[in-house]
Design a protein that fits this description.
With 116 residues, the chain is of the alpha+beta class. It is built from five helices and four strands; from the N terminus they run αβαβαβααβ. Helix content is 41%, strand content 21%. It has a four-stranded mixed sheet. Helix 3 links the parallel strand 2 and strand 3.
């Protein structure tokens, strides 16, 4: 399957999503380590209406309120561009602590993923 294109342009939706995520983190002075695409879009078995699953890894932990605010802002901007998504922000230490624990989305995100 071909990647989904952003309507009316040659920009891939994933590239636009990455740009939005990076800009929001940069605006707040948060260092981005990596953006991981997981789920059906990473596996290649997505449908036209499948959402985009992103695990955003940053250099430091954030308090829950700050993380919710950032996720909310990013999700609004993605929705404005008609990019359905699930978005998780984790620190490097959280990813390390959760990657082998089936009780966390991190475990499943790291089973099959693509770094963007």
């Amino acid at each position: 399957m071909m990647p989904k294109l952003y309507p009316g342009t040659k920009i891939l939706m994933k590239d636009l999503a990455v740009k939005i995520i990076k800009a929001e983190l940069e605006k707040r002075g948060i260092h981005l380590e990596k953006i991981i695409l997981f789920g059906s879009r990473a596996r290649g078995d997505f449908k036209p209406d499948s959402d985009w699953d992103f695990l955003v890894v940053v250099d430091r932990e954030m308090d829950p309120r700050q993380r919710r605010e950032i996720i909310g802002e990013i999700k609004i901007k993605l929705a404005e561009q008609r990019i359905p998504n699930d978005l998780f922000i984790k620190s490097i230490s959280q990813v390390e602590a959760q990657k082998k624990d089936v009780g966390w989305i991190t475990y499943y995100a790291l089973k099959y993923w693509v770094e963007l």
